[in-house]
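User: These chains co-purify. Model them together.
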Amino acid sequence: MALTKASKEACETALDELLARCDGVSAVMLAFRDGRPYADRVRDAAARGKFAAMSSSLVALGQSVLRELGGGVLDHVLVEGNDGKFVVASVPGSGGLLVIAVLAQRDARLGLVLGHTKTCALSISTAIT
Amino acid sequence: MSASYKLLFIGEPGAGKTTCIESLSEISPLVTDVRCTDDLAQVKESTTVAFDYGELSLGDQGRLLLYGLPGQGRFSFMFDVVRENLLGVILLVDAASATAADGLGETLDTYAAAIRELPCVVALNKNDSPPPTLLADCEALLRKHGMVAPILLADARRREDLVRMFRLLFTMIENGAEPIAATGGMAWH
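Assistant: Joint model of the two components:
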């Protein structure tokens, strides 16, 4: 696994494809597991740090809950509210280094958001390995 | 149902928050540490990204819930998770670090507004004889952020040191704090 300039550009292309193909997605964050942004498509630059930190916290908490309760390996964490959905998952093949988080609007279809998030994560996995 | 109270451990990464909770907790602690990916990796292998959690019995008085929050400012949103029923704060300083005062400064920049009204003890960890200037620096930083708190030496691995911190904190609570029913927190007068 290597995080080069070329692989980062490939990751950003994958994020752009997710935004283009999945209706209702408003922001995507690719973050390091300890909560720092790596690549993103988040309009509010000031929010990037917190977006990345919250994403890593949710993945860590999800993994801890599953570990404590015998729930196996984390696939994704979904947070759903009146006005939006937030999906966060580990990027396979990154050795747990990266997490991907997707913010979608209320009317976005959950199945599509989940599917496109996983497709994007696989594209990122290919780009960095 | 017995009462439960929260005690918060905060401080820069590596200050000893996870160690404190592991030393005190009567249950297997919940830990959300991940391996560092930035310069911090040169100092420590892993860092907390959500919170550490443990529990301690207070006998007939209920249970003490122990929370350790990440030291980096980007995780300050986690404070909202533990705000309710918060009894007090242990502010940990890595006194063996050459940048100990900077670490405390960053922690206070992040959390001072939230913890200023709570009973607080500052614990200088990892160094039995820190330089006198560190004590003065810590006092100055507390004053700068409008806080008053006792500063003491403690080894986060030694339970007796942690018990001493608790006694001091509870003395402060018994002699000057009263519960705020609306928030479940405590007001320090």
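Residues 9 and 39 of chain A are 9 Å apart (CA to CA).
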